[in-house]
Amino acid sequence: MTSRSRLLPLAVIGEGALALAGGVWMAAGGIPMRLGSPTASVTAGLTLAAVLAILQWWLLRRAPAAGLVRQWRAFYRDVLTPLFGQLSAWEIVAISLLAGVGEELLFRGAMQGAWGWPVASVAFGLCHVGGRGTWPLGVWAAATGAL
Predict the structure, then answer these.
(1) DSSP code of 87?
(2) Which pTM value belongs to this model?
């Protein structure tokens, strides 16, 4: 099995585990799952996704190449592009949807419900750091998680 063909099953397992952990935590802690207006939620989600996509494009293409921007570009080039560059569009969409469900249930549902959004946002960012070269992703994840 190639690394490309393993990524989607790993996402299913990993994000499924996060969703399960978040669901169990919420049930055990009596944390209610509040689903707001689907129209408002989808509108807000798509709007924020568009804003973040534009910001991401600007950071990768137009921002002055200094400090965090330089490190973010190197991380994108050296880690993200090789990892996701060979996937089809449907695989990227599937992994993104799986991540949305698993991570939102754990961090926004359980952790934020128990400890508040600042703790959940910082924890979300820290969980995206896998070593010294990945800290720009942790900063990005914490910031977007706070939003």
Answers:
(1) S
(2) 0.86
Q: Give the model's pLDDT for residue 14.
A: 96
Tokens, residue 18: 């996060």
Res 147: pLDDT = 85
111: exposed, middle or buried (Cβ count in 10 Å: 0-12, 13-18, 19+): buried
Contact 75, 133 (CB under 8 A): yes
Q: Which residues contact 103 (CB under 8 A, 6 or more apart)?
A: 15, 18, 124
Q: Report the distance separating Cα 122 and Cα 21, nearest Å.
A: 18
What digits encode the pLDDT tens for the residues 40-53?
A: 989 998 999 999 99
Does residue 64 come out as left (phi exceeding 0), alpha (psi in the -120 to 50 range) or beta?
beta
> In the structure encoding, which two tokens stand for residue 142, read together?
């914490």
CA distance 143 to 124: 9
Share of the chain above pLDDT 90, in %: 73
Give me the helices (H) in the chain, please.
3-29, 38-61, 67-75, 81-84, 89-103, 112-115, 117-126, 135-146
